[in-house]
Amino acid sequence: MESPFSDMDWLDTASNTLDLAIQKGLYTEFSHLKSDLDRIRFIHNHRSSLLSNTFERYLSSTSSSLTKNATTAINFRKKGNDYFVNKNLSRAAWCYRASIALSIINSQDMALSYGNLSAVLFELNHYHESIRAIQLANDFYPNELKFKLVFRRAACYHKLNDPERSAYELKICRDLIKKTAGLDRKKIDSFCKEMDQLSGQIALLNKRKEEEQHQEQEHTKSYKNLDDLIQHSQTPTETLATCLLKSTEEKLDNEFCPPSPPSPPRSVFLINESNLLLHGPNEHVPCASTTLNVAYSKDKGRHIIANQDIPSDSLILNERPYACLLLPKFAYTYCDHCLTSIVIPYVCPQCSHVLFCSEHCQQRALASYHQYECKHIHVLKTLGIAFLAYRTLTITDHETLWTTITQTTIPNENEIKTNSYKSDYFSIQKLITHTEQMSIDDLFHYSLTAYLLSEIIKSTNFLQCNQIKKRDTEQILLASILLKHIQQMICNAQTISITKTNQIDEIIFDNEDDQDEITKRFASAIFPTCALMNHSCVPNIRCVFDQGYLRVYTARSIRQGEEILNCYGPQKTLMPSTEQRQNVLFEQYFFKCQCEGCIDMIKSQGDKMTNGEN
């Protein structure tokens, strides 16, 4: 999965282009430009003199970048086998997922890796998932080895307390062995012993079930009259009608017991996330609690305040990301679409850079934004936060995109009071950029990056106009929007971290992970509503990313009228030095922190100086 470009490659290209612009006397002209559209037009007009074939070099690397690689896939599978033998199941699972991502779609290599993954899942007691992995492996698995998959499936059903289905799979396994020629005699003898052991366990389980059924029948017969039946009810609240109905149902169940169907996947309980919010969802801000309001002032801009007293540890915001982006090193650990940890991987048929946690996420991503990333994702992944800006644009449908671009205006106090605030593209368009505080060098770099992104978009079918002049106009406009989004992401994107306590058993593990690390940053995302929270080095909320949502809880009791404050950088508890915290914040967010923690520290230092303390 090695990319032909390193993270520093584009930075070097942009730096060299900046030096060339200075040499040719174009830098001064760029420094006087006031709008993102003018900056993009400048890059477009001077493309030949400043960039030569730079963009073409990036875009033409597609064929050598990707895609599937059978040799690498086999090597990862072999590494996984070594880890499995040594009982390092988490690393084995990661290697098998990597092998699946790199394997040619619907190939024997992919089937073998799914089959090996099913063995890991079985050892980790994920029996339903093991059966699903076997199903994905089955069609292209070597015929002479299929009996192994069927035997493992029989073992899974046995573990799931389904002896009928387990016995049925075991019979198929025996038939496959009889029909398969050339198998090693010693291995077959060993395998047959395992099957005999499983048959014995199935027989014991069936016998135990029959004994339990017999005891239930005898217990039902022992009731001599209605009073006896009522007296032996299992709960005090059980009514006579319920007892009679239960007795009838037990008779019907015992009269006919057909073979059990294949075990279903684990149940998925759909929860109405808005009902989890304190006092329910806000009418005007759906992902916020009714206890919050969006306010506006000239000095603070838009911000969030409490409209009533809120107790500690209350869920007040619950927002899905509008767009999210995994860090490249976690591509085989978390779902590229929803950021859920991957147990069974689903792949992109073309590239090896992404995996999905389910068919649902796979289909949603492939039909939406991934089709505009796939061929050039090796370049996009080296562009950092600019990639998130790109996905924010391509994840938006065309009608919404163009309508929003033409209608966006600077929000004012009246608009805040009359309109609802939703987690949509319209809200993202109105997030701040801090363009005035950014250096000319940075704006030049961001402009080059935005134009590169527009070249990538132009090479896809995202632009719907076929006329060359109109396509160029549309490209320049989209590049200016991308430039705006890059600036917005720098100031508004949220880092997503996860702790090891949130991981599912041992199956979630990244190949580059530090095992001693308790909390790790694995993704970035844009949350339009949560982005409205202003900063404090001593925040009154805490954020938890869980099941695809950023959940915001109160860290302490909050009084009516108090502002809801997040921490953009290091908290005071982690970086006690006020000067260091303010330097970090000013470098990225362009403001000098005046929060309670900083003011108290500055005041305390002043008091010490007044009192002659060192």
From TrEMBL:
<dbReference type="InterPro" id="IPR002893">
    <property type="entry name" value="Znf_MYND"/>
</dbReference>
<keyword id="KW-0539">Nucleus</keyword>
<keyword id="KW-0479">Metal-binding</keyword>
<protein>
    <recommendedName>
        <fullName>Protein-lysine N-methyltransferase SMYD4</fullName>
    </recommendedName>
</protein>
<dbReference type="GO" id="GO:0032259">
    <property type="term" value="P:methylation"/>
</dbReference>
<dbReference type="GO" id="GO:0008270">
    <property type="term" value="F:zinc ion binding"/>
</dbReference>
<keyword id="KW-0489">Methyltransferase</keyword>
<keyword id="KW-0949">S-adenosyl-L-methionine</keyword>
<dbReference type="GO" id="GO:0005634">
    <property type="term" value="C:nucleus"/>
</dbReference>
<keyword id="KW-0808">Transferase</keyword>
<keyword id="KW-0862">Zinc</keyword>
<dbReference type="InterPro" id="IPR001214">
    <property type="entry name" value="SET_dom"/>
</dbReference>
<dbReference type="InterPro" id="IPR046341">
    <property type="entry name" value="SET_dom_sf"/>
</dbReference>
<dbReference type="InterPro" id="IPR044421">
    <property type="entry name" value="SMYD4_SET"/>
</dbReference>
<dbReference type="Pfam" id="PF00856">
    <property type="entry name" value="SET"/>
</dbReference>
<keyword id="KW-0863">Zinc-finger</keyword>
<dbReference type="InterPro" id="IPR011990">
    <property type="entry name" value="TPR-like_helical_dom_sf"/>
</dbReference>
<feature type="domain" description="MYND-type">
    <location>
        <begin position="335"/>
        <end position="374"/>
    </location>
</feature>
<comment type="function">
    <text>Protein-lysine N-methyltransferase. Monomethylates PRMT5, modulating its transcriptional activity. May also act as a histone methyltransferase. Plays a critical role in cardiac development. Acts as a key epigenetic regulator of gene expression during cardiac development via its dual activities as a methyltransferase and negative regulator of HDAC1.</text>
</comment>
<dbReference type="GO" id="GO:0042826">
    <property type="term" value="F:histone deacetylase binding"/>
</dbReference>
<keyword id="KW-0963">Cytoplasm</keyword>
<dbReference type="GO" id="GO:0008168">
    <property type="term" value="F:methyltransferase activity"/>
</dbReference>
<dbReference type="InterPro" id="IPR052097">
    <property type="entry name" value="SET-MYND_domain_protein"/>
</dbReference>
<dbReference type="Pfam" id="PF01753">
    <property type="entry name" value="zf-MYND"/>
</dbReference>
<feature type="domain" description="SET">
    <location>
        <begin position="290"/>
        <end position="569"/>
    </location>
</feature>
<dbReference type="GO" id="GO:0005737">
    <property type="term" value="C:cytoplasm"/>
</dbReference>
